[in-house]
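Quick one: sequence plus zinc ion SMILES, need structure tokens.
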Amino acid sequence: MRNAAGSGQEREDFRTNSEHHAGCETGPHLRGTAHLDDAVAYYVANYAAKDLLFSTELIQLKDQLGDFEDCDELSGRKRKFCDAGLPAKLTQVLEAAAPVYRAHLWPEHDRANRRWIMRVAPLVREQGVGLSERLADVYQTRWPREKIRVDLAGYANWSGAYTTADPLRVTISSLDSRNQGAAALEVLFHEGSHGIAEPVQAAIIRECRQRDKAIPRDLWHALVFYTTGEVLRPVLGSSGAAAGDQDGTVPGGGYTPYALREGLYQRGWNDYFNYCRDSGNLTLMDTPPSTTPSPACFFAVVFATSLLSRYVVS
Ligand SMILES: [Zn+2]
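Reply:
Sure thing.
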């Protein structure tokens, strides 16, 4: 993972997210800075209602801005290869706001990005290959051969990190309190898993359709959370990374996975969690328990737990 090794997006950049949230952070010392206010107004009018994860337009903008990370302008007027091909008005707005962002917010974001990378990099070097092999094994696939680009930014989306496909790129907020300490490694591998977990989602959909069952909402994502957490738990629980860390640890050592810590299962995923936890050695042929989650598709859960049986201790 490129940035985890210390290169890439920690550089000064033109990230849309950063520009947007720079506006959100506009404090008294920046208020009245016309170009920044213009950029915020432009973002509100054109992009704020769109989802960073699902809007093709925003995904393309993010990727384009990442591709031009070495450029200090986006129009190509100084260096031709820096013509990012963005809409003219957006180029103008970003270039006008950039000096304010650089002066007031970038130093803090840059420090946070570098600090985040510095802390997680040793864990990635030590555990990364083993973890990626384990996860790929669970999902019955291969970890991508190519490096996965990970962009660190002051802010990501509402969840603190997200991943977009084609090309596979991960964006992580270095300032988000949920991503700190030992949790950084889980965030990294959770997001990376989005690149290999697609067959799980496809299988759930297929199984449900074949049986004319409702597709359980977000089951595949709950599984990715559960799987990453359980694969990383022993690693983080026993490593020095968790010891004495305020984030992601429980008293007396050990590691509490993100979904448990943040209460994700309490927000409608409780049935999924119970099945994942209790059905570690179910097989596809097992008898359904008497209380199937409704309208969830039980077969999808069984399919999923058959994957989980590869590592959940019975
Ligand atoms: Zn996810």
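The two ends are 33 Å apart (CA to CA). The pocket of zinc ion is lined by residues 190, 194, 221, 224 (CB under 6 Å).
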